[in-house]
Amino acid sequence: MLITAMPFLFAVSCKKKGTSCPANYTTYNFDAIANISPHKIVYNLGDTIYYVSTISKSLLDKISNQQIDYSNAVSIIGDNGISFIDTIAKKLVPARDSFKLVALMGSFIEEPSNLRGGINIVYLDQGNNYQFTGLFICKSKGIFSFGTGDLLCQGLKGKDCTKATFFTNLSNNDNHIQLYENSLNVTVLPEGIKRIYCFKVQ
Fold first, then answer.
1. In CATH, what number does 25-201 get?
2. Where does the chain have alpha helices with state H?
3. pTM for this entry
4. What is the number of other CB atoms lying within 10 angstroms of the CB of residue 165?
5. Which residues, in sequence order, are CB contacts of 129 under 8 Å at separation 6+?
6. CB 160 within 8 A of CB 14
7. Interval 140-173: pLDDT, tens
């Protein structure tokens, strides 16, 4: 079985003067990084995992290869999945209840209907950049996986059709991917490697 990360897109549209932008258009494609610390394969019950992401307001657009001033964004929102890995059935089980979530900067928005145990994260405008910092406090034992989808911004305030997608990569290493692949008996495709952070809680 081949596994790749699935982006979660929010369908939004904005108005040009006299016309509508296509429903699924994207003006800009940017890169973003989410850092996880401490960087481990094995955590203990009660340990705190930090999830930190900072996005500059001056960004390189992957479509035009030009530097873009992306100040005054309406919102930047992303969808993360938290899963328990059932190593017997070889499947992912929603596991947001296995962690206590605390937002230090920005906010969490839980999605009860999301089968991936998804939680939307909302970035906070900090003047020179956009930031999100969240804590995941381990409450249950097992093998778990964080998976990240793309971030989406509805656009810039007062500017038409400036929607952006942020391709988010997690700070992981080969050990996290090997644990994921061995636990599920799958092969992660190259485009999914930086979307997965797999670890144990004991």
1. 2.60.40
2. 174-184
3. 0.83
4. 19
5. 54, 55, 56, 57
6. yes
7. 999 999 998 889 999 999 998 899 999 999 888 8
